Write the C-alpha cells for this entry.
Amino acid sequence: MFKGIVEIALKPGVVDPPGVAIKESLHSLGFNEVESVRMGKRVEVHLNAANREEAEKQLQKMCEQLLVNPVIEEYTFYVEEEA
Amino acid sequence: MFKGIVEIALKPGVVDPPGVAIKESLHSLGFNEVESVRMGKRVEVHLNAANREEAEKQLQKMCEQLLVNPVIEEYTFYVEEEA
C-alpha cells in the first residue's frame, strides 16, 4: 500500500475569495501581521501499486484526469509507503 | 516576511463524503487500485514577523482560534522565510 499526498494551490493571480475571507477574519481577531491568505486543497490517496514508481505514475494520471484543474490550479505530490 | 503552510486533515474515523465521491470517480475512470481518498485543506498564510519563532507562535494561535476545528480536524504546519 502507498499513500499519495497531492497538494493543490490556486495559480498566482487567480482570485481566491475564501482566502480573502480568512484574511479578514484573522484581522478582526487581531492578527494584523497577516498580509495574505491562499486556500488550497490536500488530497490523500491510498492505493495499491507494485512499487513506488508505479504509484507515482498512477497519481500523476489521477491529477491530470480528475484531481486538478490545470486552468487555475497547480500541484505537487509525493508518495509514501504504508505498512 | 514568512510563509506558513497549514495542512489540515479530517481525524481518522470522521466521515468524509467528498473523499468518497472522489474515490468513486477515480474508480469509474479505471483507477481500481485506489482504496480510499481523504480530502483536506492547505492554507498558505503570508505574514510579517520579527523571526521564525514569532511566526510559528502566531500561526499556532491562528490554528487554534480560526483555521482548525479541533473536534473533527487535525493539523500540522511549517514556516518558510520569504524574500
